[in-house]
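Cast an eye over this sequence plus tokens and walk me through the fold:

***
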Amino acid sequence: MSKSFEIIFDSLIFQPFNYRLEIKNRLYNLSYSLQKYFVNDQENYKLNIDDLDYKGIYSLGGGLCFSAFRWNEDIEKRIIERSSINNFTGIPLFLGTDDEKIEMNKNDKKKLINFPLGYFDNFSEKMKKLNHQSEVSKIIENPKQFTVDIDDPNSIEASIGKYNFNHKTNFFISEIQLIDQLYFATIQVSKASLLDIFCLGYQSYLDDEKRRQY
């Protein structure tokens, strides 16, 4: 199991992360919540983690990336669908009134986030800076390993290599298995922090999402 620790996030990613936590809370009967946390008068958010194992921390980072990277795209898709017709039946996809459609579109547009250029690629670096003080005391003391499901063996190898190079960690894959048409990778590490596990999960999902775009 992991140690108890906290992660600090910038406020820009609050909506996608809060959405991801609500899903995790419902699925696993948890009660995670983000708390406001100010640093030099800058609004951030803090999440306390005390009962996730290493796989859970990795998956939480991946889930955050999955929600945030697609956030604006999913909202814009919903807005477009409310004015679209089903190509097979000729029936509108949205069956509410025009006033309802206008109101729902207005509310959705308020949720759009203006992510700066390079925000997702630089996310791990920003997280390391925000969490520098708390991260120091949460270094993994002994060799650890955890197993996660993956999309592509080659992609996870590349993600780990890139993360190790950028953050001086030593994650490596000791085994990849194909079980019931799903790939599982066993990741070992002895030089990293709990935050690194979270950020590696984020990075691997980001690389997969970007790969799907091409």
User: Anything to note?
Assistant: The helical segments are 14-28, 54-69, 71-81, 98-111, 123-130, 132-136, 153-167, 194-212.
